[in-house]
Design goal:
The protein is an alpha/beta fold. About 30% of the residues lie in helices and about 15% in strands. The protein has helices at about 30-40, 50, 70, 85-105, 140-145, 155-165; strands at about 10, 45, 60-65, 80, 110, 120-125, 130-135, 150. The strands form three sheets. Strands 2-1-5-8 form a four-stranded parallel β-sheet, sandwiched between helices. Strands 3-4 form a two-stranded antiparallel sheet. The radius of gyration is 16 Å and the shape is globular. It binds iron/sulfur cluster. Iron/sulfur cluster binds next to α2.
Length: about 170
């Protein structure tokens, strides 16, 4: 009987220690679920903003007045503090992330909370004040629209349960 491959999981690269954040840092997480996924060799890692062509480091950016869904439908923009419109790079990064998921049959993603790309429950409020609001980033919105379950680094136990149910 052929070996059955475990389901793949997409990760925000910064959660695995890659220094891809806007400020050149990372968001490294240590958790049993990550250890299990590493052991199963089923992790894909990607930074949507770098995949969209943005450099490291790069100016901080926020979605103005809305969330990732509004960016996808063209009714909101992603801008930097100095007013540069980086929406095209955010959209390209989201599309490239979705393509990786579709090419590798990825149904689960663990993405960094708070990011204008990767946030899944909260994002910066668009005022560059440090305040956050309920909402999701551009990549999270696109993945969810396409049926991929998105968790944050604060939901690794839930993500592991979901992965286990897909593994049965
Ligand atoms: S875009 Fe996502 S993966 Fe890239 S640094 Fe920001 S939170 Fe991490």
């Amino acid at each position: 009987m052929a070996d059955v491959k475990p389901p793949a999981v997409l990760f925000s690269a910064c959660l695995l220690g890659d220094a891809v954040r806007y400020d050149g840092g990372d968001n490294l997480q240590v958790h049993n679920a990550i250890r299990i996924w590493h052991q199963n060799d089923c992790i894909y890692r990607l930074c949507p903003e770098v995949a969209g062509g943005l450099p490291i480091p790069r100016p901080a950016a926020e979605i103005i007045g809305a969330g990732g869904d509004a960016v996808l439908d063209g009714s909101a923009r992603v801008v930097t503090l100095d007013g540069s419109d980086v929406t095209p790079a955010f959209l390209l990064g989201a599309q490239r992330t979705l393509a990786v998921c579709q090419q590798n049959n990825i149904k689960i993603a663990v993405l960094t909370e708070g990011s204008p790309s990767c946030g899944s429950q909260r994002i910066h409020a668009g005022r560059f004040s440090g305040s956050k609001t309920a909402g999701q980033g551009v990549t999270s919105a696109l993945l969810r629209t396409n049926g991929i379950k998105v968790f944050s680094q604060h939901q690794l136990d839930e993500a592991l349960l979901c992965w286990s149910s897909l593994s049965d």
